[in-house]
Design brief:
Largest sheet: 5 strands, antiparallel
Low-confidence stretches: none
Number of helices: 0
Mean pLDDT: 93
Strand content: 35-45%
Helix content: under 10%
Distance between the termini: 29 Å
Structural class: mainly beta
Order of helices and strands: EEEEEEEEEEEE
Amino acid sequence: MSLSEDKNYELCSGDNAIGAVEEASGYKGSMISISESSDSQGYGRCLTAGEVFAGHALEAFDNSDGDNGDVDIRLRGSAKYRLQVEISGAVVTDIGSVVYASDDETYTLTEGSNTKVGKITRFVESGVCEVEFEPFVS
C-alpha cells in the first residue's frame, strides 16, 4: 500500500551486527561473509570466497561453544567505508579496479571464485591502496 501521510524512519548508524555461525570465531579486522551453507545460512563467519561480503569485524568474536546466532559479530559495514589495505601487485593504474577477497584477510584483483568487496580509490605505494568497501553487494 502506498503512503498516505508522512512517515518517520529511524536513521541507522554506519555499523551493523549479525549473528555468528555456530562454532565460529574471528579476530578484529576480519572480513565477514554471510554463510550460504544449508545449516547456517544467513549467519556471519570469517569470509569464505564466493559468499556475500558483510563488512569488517570491529572486535574479536567467539561463538566456538555456541549455536547459530548465540554471539553477534559487530561490523563496520552497513554503508560504504574506506580502509588502507595491502593488495599484492597493485600499481597506480589499478585505481578504480574492483577488489576481491579470497579469505578473511587476503585482497586480490582476481575475480575467479572470490568475493567482491570494493574498489580501489587511491594508490598509496606499491601493493598498498585505499579501498572503498561496499558490504552486501554481490
